[in-house]
Amino acid sequence: NFHVVSNSSNRLKIVHEGQEIKARIIAKDENLDLALIKTSVKNETFIEISDKVLKKMQSIVAAGFPALHLSDDLKLTSGIISSLKGIGNNSALIQIDAALNPGNSGGPIIDKEKGHLAAVAVARMEGSHYQSINYGIKASRVKEFIESNSILLPEQNTKSKRVKKKDIGEILESSTVLIYH
After folding, report:
1. Active-site positions?
2. CA 62 from centre of chain
3. C-alpha torsion angle, residues 98, 151, 176, 7 (rounded to 10)
4. What is the dihedral of CA 38, 158, 77, 7, to 10 degrees?
5. C-alpha dihedral over 143, 36, 48, 31, to 10 degrees?
6. pLDDT digits (tens, 9 = 90+) for 43-75
7. Are 63 and 47 in contact (CB under 8 A)?
């Protein structure tokens, strides 16, 4: 997310396979709250961005690094897509009931069946009146952002099949990185 890296100047880093690696912002969209960073990492594992339409009740898994003071392990939460719109009927967002906390921002929210990107974690509602109201930026908007910045996406797997639960965990573990500055 843009809000994660906006004040990083030249101090931006990721942690990949236990190593700190310098990163730099190559594209950003403050309104959509997305940023694209570049590193020297050559990772063969990635989360596909599907053109599949999202649906209410679709099962999802969110990944991120909340509560780093407890552990530096990637945390996974699961749930469903609750709404196809965000606050104020924002159609760029989906609402999910999977737990999101500070540290989840910018993390993937993937379709539990296929392992494709459904959204990017962006926000949660806070306060005693809210429970399990969390938001992600739709994958279609993420794809538009990437393509509008002349970034080529990897070839998509044309055969879309079910992914085993253990494979989803492995995909998330190898393709989600901690970003900090």
Report:
1. 3, 33, 105
2. 7
3. -80
4. 20
5. -40
6. 888 899 988 899 999 999 999 999 888 899 999
7. no
Dihedral class, residue 33 (left if φ above 0, else alpha if ψ from -120 to 50, else beta): left
CB atoms within 10 A of CB 169: 14
**What pTM value is reported for the model?**
0.92
Q: Which tokens belong to 135?
A: 């938001």
Burial class (CB in 10 A: 0-12, 13-18, 19+), 180: middle
**Residue 76, both tokens:** 């996974």
For residue 172, which phi and psi values (nearest 5 degrees)?
A: -65, -40
4, two tokens = 């994660």
Provide the token pair at 54: 């999202």
Q: Which two tokens stand for residue 110?
A: 């993937």
- Counting every residue written for the chain, the total comes to 181
Nearest to 110 by CA among 179, 159, 165: 165
Would you say 50 and 117 are in contact if contact means Cβ atoms under 8 Å apart? yes
Instruction: Write down the residue that tokens 């679709």 correspond to.
Output: 58
Residue 75 sits at φ, ψ, to 5 deg, of -105, 140
Q: Which two tokens stand for residue 156?
A: 């998509």
Going by the DSSP 8-state scheme, the letter that residue 167 receives in this structure is H
**Cα Rg, the chain, nearest whole Å:** 15
Residue 21: pLDDT above 70? yes
pLDDT band at 156; cut points 50, 70, 90: low
